[in-house]
Amino acid sequence: MHENTVREAFPELDAIADDDLRTGVVDAWATAMTDNGVEDLAGVPWLPPVQRDLALDDESLVDHVREVTACALALAETLLDHRQVDISLDTVLAGALVHDVSKLAEFDGMDATAVYDLLGHPYYGVHLVARAGLPVELAHVALSHTHRTTVEPATLEATIVAHADAVAAAAIRSRATDDLRTV
């Protein structure tokens, strides 16, 4: 039902070589949309509490996920060009694309839900990734990409996504302050 919406929102899906992985990422987002009554994926805010505090009402989740994906891919490709490391670009791409999938359950518009207050997106993201039949490596990316858990990234792919997410979030916050230490 929502598969076309997800594919339109995230053209980066086409870069995932593994068909099953690509389909699983689409399924995770489509399931999150269906479960939470989200019809307008492009209209979902990035992170309402921060947006409210910093008067950044125009930031969208889709834009953030696309920025994280672009940053993660650039980091991975740089490492592949300069080091002899074993990095799965498919895992980086898919992980970046699903890292915030559960924000659809965390907020109803700009209002926090019990999922945000009691669980937060890393934990609910693991649930959505597992429901979509995606590999445990992607559940690990969702779980370890944020400070809302004590789980540290254990793989290079998870580390790349976590750092890409932090940089993309800092870029958003930089619109409201010259000193990122203050927010």
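(ticket continues) Second input and output from the same batch:
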Amino acid sequence: MSRRIVVIQGHPDNSERHLCHALADAYAEGAQRGGHEVRRVAAAELDFPLLRSAEDWQGTGTIPDIQEAQNAVAWADHLVILYPLWLGTMPAILKGFMEQLFRPGFAFSREESSGAMGRKLLTGKSARIIVTMGMPAFFYRWFFRAHSLKSLERNILKFVGIRPVRTTLFGLVEGVSASRRAQWLNRVRALGNRGR
């Protein structure tokens, strides 16, 4: 079954190519080969302000780059979010982008009739989160309990109705061998091919 997929690149450095960029390319390539439609969003290429107050969060002003990203998410059946782990969490540019993207009125509704948690407006979509890191991935899951990954999964994506959310972690990425890197790219390419 063909899917509509948006690939969200969360790496903050677009001045050079990083593993996250190669993984995004591999996923998109696999998805297109699998007959899926793909759109791409790169947080670092967008122009948007950081939210600094409750008024900013509740505001209804239109930011063209965020509106385009919301249109891509609304269009998609499946989201793929890639980022490097920085200081134990997602980079600030991606967090700022997520705060703008998943705003009230687009991602959820706080109508009185929808209960204390609000109404989820992005139900029917699934997601995959792909994270790269310098530490071993099992150590991040075991010792740190993958806290930032769980926060993105539960507190953002599932909160707005996106499920299931699957995860793929790549650890010890610095100085990885060419053969290991190729294995990772092939793994992500296969995920793209299946639209998962």
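Agent notes: The radius of gyration is 17 Å. The mean pLDDT is 94. Closing as not reproducible unless the customer responds.
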